[in-house]
Design brief:
Radius of gyration: 18 Å
Helix content: over 70%
Order of helices and strands: HHHHHHHH
Structural class: mainly alpha
Strand content: under 5%
Shape: globular
Number of strands: 0
Distance between the termini: 30 Å
Largest sheet: none
Number of helices: 8
Length: 210
């Protein structure tokens, strides 16, 4: 592994990236608004699993393809953006149901939220480029471990830091929800807030460059 002269700035940078407001935190908050704490946890876990896809891809060098072939990046970017917009519109248009406890969304929603979150993260080319740009800066070619193994270990640490921030957002968002008296109008407002956030993330992803 790299020496502490590389590891200390690596940990500091990882924590900074984790707490910076970004699409992952907004996505997790939106899912928590729409589906309660358990839905937020499923979203955070899905993003975490999707993050491992990018970590492995970066370690194997596959993510470099996105930087080398702009067409692949563009296709993934618009696919991910379209999927986020679809999820947001679908969330907004969902029919109202009888209000239930904030902490207990329908059990059937949890696997769906998990799969949606994994898909969102896998289709996000910015995450792939982040790992391929960030991890090599802290790799030591002279270390005993091969470069791919170092990138894999460092990527797992970064992914855990990012997921920890997502979980914190779930707790904060659900605490705010718990302080609000439930009602059909408020349920509808929270669903609109969550759906609008997802759709807005999709539009932002589609319109931004690398």
């Amino acid at each position: 592994m790299p020496g502490w002269d590389l590891l200390l700035p690596f940990f500091a940078a990882s924590l900074v990236f984790a707490i910076m407001p970004g699409p992952a935190l907004l996505f997790t908050a939106a899912q928590t608004l729409a589906h309660g704490r358990q839905g937020g946890f499923m979203a955070a876990f899905g993003l975490h699993l999707g993050g491992f896809f990018h970590v492995i891809a970066a370690a194997l060098g596959l993510s470099a393809l996105l930087a080398a072939v702009p067409t692949v990046y563009t296709v993934l970017k618009f696919a991910g953006a379209a999927y986020l917009i679809y999820l947001g519109i679908r969330m907004i248009l969902t029919k109202d149901r009888e209000p239930g406890p904030v902490e207990s969304p329908a059990a059937g929603k949890r696997p769906k939220t998990l799969l949606q979150s994994i898909t969102v993260e896998v289709l996000n080319p910015k995450t792939a480029l982040f790992f391929i740009a960030f991890l090599p800066q802290f790799v030591d070619p002279a270390a005993a471990l091969p470069i791919w193994a170092q990138m894999l270990i460092l990527g797992v640490i970064v992914n855990i830091c990012l997921s920890s921030a997502d979980i914190l957002v779930v707790f904060l968002t659900s605490s705010i929800l718990g302080a609000v008296r439930r009602g059909q109008n408020r349920i509808r407002a929270m669903r609109w807030a969550g759906g609008s956030t997802l759709a807005g993330l999709g539009v932002h992803l589609a319109l931004t460059d690398r």
